[in-house]
Amino acid sequence: MKTPVRLLAFLLFVIVTEGQAAGNAPAPSHGVPYPEGWKDWATIAVSHRNDNNTLRVILGNDVAVQAARAGNTNPWPDGAILGKVVWKDTLLENWKAATVPGEFVHAEFMFRDSKKYADSHGWGWARWVGLEQKPFDEGMAVCIACHTPVRNRGWVFTEPASLP
Amino acid sequence: MKTPVRLLAFLLFVIVTEGQAAGNAPAPSHGVPYPEGWKDWATIAVSHRNDNNTLRVILGNDVAVQAARAGNTNPWPDGAILGKVVWKDTLLENWKAATVPGEFVHAEFMFRDSKKYADSHGWGWARWVGLEQKPFDEGMAVCIACHTPVRNRGWVFTEPASLP
Q1: Is the CB of B45 less than 8 angstroms away from the CB of A101?
Q2: B-chain residues within 8 Å CB-CB of A51?
Q3: Which residues of chain B make contact with A65, given a CB cutoff of 8 A?
Q4: Assuming Cys at both sites, which of A110, B13, B80, B90 could form a disulfide with B64, CB separation 3.0 to 4.6 Å?
Q5: Nearest 5°: phi and psi at B125?
């Protein structure tokens, strides 16, 4: 190909692939981009809330998982992302004494960046709702209000689970 | 370095690093080697058992996670490893309606290999106990006995959690 044609082909390629990427990822929540790949993140903890009958797994990106394992969570380092995946609870058909995930509710995230998110206590607060991952956009203040009981521990409820 | 010296240095490096790797890994359980790296595996499900007050996260290696996401679990494919990480439950200090991981109990695994483990229903059953990861060696029959209620679903309790 002659150079102008090659350049045109390249630009077309960039436009198309960028468009696909944008098309696949859910829209941002509170301006925070969707954290692609979170389903492959490692586990930091789990929880079972009996006030709203939900089961949760708390995941972390590499920065968060390394910080959790090193006990370096006061404060969590910039770049850490904590993810909380939430399901309604239900009983396991073959072992009724076990409560397990039922309907998927949402996945919510805290993005640590002490400068970028200085106005929201050093965290970007985001949530994507339902299997369709609809961005939550009612404002970070909604998230922060619920986390107020843990304002003295960096606004994080999660205590990393003990692991060998 | 001259070639023989270089070769010697390389061999020494191999011996030392292999020795370290072997020294770090816990001994096999029921002849099944320790699945290094399981703490970085992705989540398949979670559960809360109120008969013995334990919280669990069910992890999978890449083969198992791909099978779970594709609904390809009847039977699980050879090469799949399911891991169940178990903690005694406790209440979260800052949100008493949340039950969270307390003391680490053990990590137990099912290794799918329909030929190698034909005598134990197509699974290698293994467990490592406590933070010291002491290999459980009371026999796979102990594990199988407890899984008998799910003999008709490939001996697996876990139902992969719904995910976007």
Answers
A1: yes
A2: 97-98
A3: 40
A4: B80
A5: -110, 125
The structure tokens listed for A103 are 């309907």
A48/B contact by beta carbon, under 8 A: yes
CA dihedral A150→A155→A157→A159, nearest 10 degrees, is -110
Structure tokens at B71: 């609904």
Indicate the pairing of strand A95-112 with strand A123-129.
antiparallel
Q: From the list B97, B161, B162, which residue is nearest A51 (CB)?
A: B97
For the question of whether the overall pTM of this predicted structure is more than 0.90, the answer is no
What is the separation, in whole angstroms, between the first and last Cα of chain B? 56
Contacts of A124 by beta carbon, 8 Å cutoff, 6+ apart: A30, A31, A32, A109, A110, A111, A113, A116, A117, A140
A74-116: pLDDT as tens digits: 999 999 999 999 999 999 998 999 999 999 999 999 999 999 9
Structural contact between residues A161 and A59, judged by C-beta atoms closer than 8 angstroms: no
